[in-house]
Amino acid sequence: MHKYLIFWAVYVSLSLPAIAQQASRQKATKQGICGTVVEKKGNMMPSVGPASARTNGAAVIREVLIFPLLNSSQVDAGENGFITSVRGVKPLKTVKSDKNGRFCVRMPVGKYTLMVREPKGLYANLSDSQNNIFPVSVQKNRQSTITVEISHSAVF
Predict the structure, then answer these.
(1) CA distance 54 to 90
(2) 29 to each of 93, 114, 140, how far by Cα in Å?
(3) What is the spatial distance between Cα 111 and Cα 121, in angstroms, rounded to a whole number?
């Protein structure tokens, strides 16, 4: 019995570092975009009262489309953040957020535009100072973490 305990103690002590190293390697090589999709509706104006009355939005299931980096000059924009046309540009990848709004997709190093598919069309409500639409950068061996806020039905 004593031999078996020694064997298992040695086995576990030798296995754990190898398992930890493998997990560390997997984490280091993960590269892409992960995020959460939330929807904000109704009155989002700051107000006096309990903080619980205000919300950061509800997690939603949506199709998330990843395009090459698009500038506002390359698309036809509608109202409230809707994109009526991407002029033939195809998404590089499409993923669906889960019931908690979470999604994750592996991507090569580069700059991308994220949009979500809404019943009224493609939606993106963020741009940078160069008018790039919802820009996300992916760096080597890094995950870009973002929150996509769908706010076309909210009042601010």
Answers:
(1) 37
(2) 19, 22, 8
(3) 23
- Whether 81 and 130 map to the same domain: the answer is yes
Find the helix or strand (DSSP H, E) in which 26 lies: helix 2-29
Please count the other Cβ atoms lying within 10 Å of the Cβ belonging to residue 125: 16
Distances (CA, A) of 146 to 64, 88, 114: 12, 26, 10
- Do residues 100 and 148 share a domain? yes
Summarize pLDDT for 81-117 with one digit per residue, the tens: 899 999 999 999 999 999 999 999 999 999 999 999 9
Domain membership of residue 56 as a residue range: 31-155
* 63: exposed, middle or buried (Cβ count in 10 Å: 0-12, 13-18, 19+): middle
Same domain, 40 and 24: no
Note whether 78 and 22 are same-domain residues.
Answer: no
Give me the phi and psi of 40, to 5 degrees please: -110, 130
